[in-house]
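# step 3/5: fold
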Amino acid sequence: MDLVLLPHHNTISSLQKLQTELRQTSGKGFLAAYPLVCVLGHTDETVAVRGKLTCKPHQILKDMLKDADGTICFTNQIEADAKSGTFHLPVSVPFMDMIQAAGFRPETNLRILLGFQLSARENAGTLHCQELPAPSRSFRLALMETKPLSAGSPLPEAEPATPFSWKFHLPFWVKLR
């Protein structure tokens, strides 16, 4: 399972504006990605106890973040990958050391998948954003279970032709100081 950051509603609204901007500037055939999450790490230690999902690293991280401070920030450039036709927004997370200390395998390339360009895939490099989501101190963390609905891999390297279903487990709110 993946440990994911679920942005606050205000941040999601800003990300959806970026998706609209990409739809207008990247040409026809832009497919917005959903859910808008940032994969922070991975765990294999999830178990079911009496029908309920539990995860020791998840509880450790929840306890560690009670007194954490900092902000989640976004860069001012969208990364465009011409090979895969994907658009990503890099994310800066101040508590990645806690993720590893809690027992998760941290992700090294933190980003939110904004969508896919289905037609001409000539855009590569970076695109400047008109309006970035504001830095955030409030968000949720959860474990995300993904299941491909067809052959292919789920997040973060999913292709638009390989849909998947997802379910969030053990979500909790974090308010950084």
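# step 4/5: annotate
Residues 51 and 169 are 13 Å apart (CA to CA).
# step 5/5: archive (pending)
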